[in-house]
Amino acid sequence: MKPHPVTAPTLTESELGEIRTLIEHRSAILLDSSRERFFSTRVREYLEEKGLPSGTDLLRQVRGSSIEYEALLERLLTQETSFFRYPAVYEALEKTILPEVQERKFWDNPRTLRIWSAGCSTGEEPYSIAISVCDALKFAEAWEVEILATDISRKALRHAERGTYSKRSLQDVSLGQVENYFTAGKHGYQVKPRIRRMISFVQMNLVESVYVGRIDCIFCMNVLMYFSDERRLAILRRFYDALEPGGYFLLGHAETLSNVPMKFEPVVIGDCRLYRKPGAAEASARRVPAVAEGAS
Predict the structure, then answer these.
(1) What radius of gyration, in Å, describes the C-alpha atoms of the chain?
(2) What gap in Å lies between CA 183 and CA 116, rounded to an integer?
(3) What Cα–Cα distance (Å) separates residue 47 from each residue in 33, 125, 153?
(4) What pairs with residue 243 in β-bridges?
């Protein structure tokens, strides 16, 4: 007997629209027309994997179960990342940002350094930041370092918390850094405890108003593109408010800040463009009108 042919699931434009609306309503993530092909392909693959006959069946399933909804969301979020993904960014961190923080806070007691990896995915970014801090910060042991690593994906965070990576994924990590910060094992390379202790992994949707304290530097690489203009502006305002005066904000390679009311100062260092929040003295000077020479 010939096997019965497998019927491909049906997925209409209307069903895709309902799925897109559901995701935006529950997570504020906007999968707009610029990602239409990616979105429809991932939804269709998910339908086939689950053995569901139609988009309507998928909608019924994700509306009835938070677990199923999160599983679908995981499939639709790209988790493309790597260690030291943008080398110019980490060079700016080591040669400009960290020396500035060290100079500004050298006499503080305690000396604190707080960096936020917003959209940390599977952990390569916050671990790269931690390695850079250890390499660049003089007397690193004399500092209280916290790297806040947040992501909406529970699955990605579980991977990050394990801190185990393949040899291939460490191709952009120097041999000296691999030796200093990883332990080789039968399942891959494990991040050493002193690096792991610097990082707090937390599930967070960036649209939620969660107090994170004062931050010296924020990494938000290729994340804001998933939100509407209105949501993006609200997130940027929260970032700006959280930054210490003189703190830095870093975006992805192809992203820029334009037409935003926050007074970020663009700074170009080599091949890296980053943004700085004015220091307290600079902000104060801007508020005081300049007095013309010779005026009485």
Answers:
(1) 23
(2) 25
(3) 21, 31, 20
(4) 215
pTM more than 0.85: yes
Q: Which residue segments constitute the domains of the chain, with CATH numbers given?
A: 13-76 (1.10.155), 87-283 (3.40.50.150)
Paired tokens of 19: 């799925």
Residue whose C-alpha is closest to residue 260's, from 245, 244, 277, 282:
277
**Averaged pLDDT in 10-residue chunks for the chain of 296 residues:** 60 91 91 82 91 91 90 82 92 93 89 95 96 88 93 93 94 95 92 96 92 95 89 94 95 82 89 87 45 40
b (16+ CB within 10 A) / e for 20-54: bebbbeebbbbbeeebeeebbebbbebbeeeebee
With H, G, I as helix, E, B as strand and everything else as coil, classify residue 260: coil
The pLDDT, as a whole number, for residue 79 is: 66
Strand partners, 60: none
Side chain identity at residue 116, one-letter code? W
Cβ(126)–Cβ(84) under 8 Å? no
Report the candidate in 251, 285, 244 with the shortest Cα–Cα distance to residue 268.
251
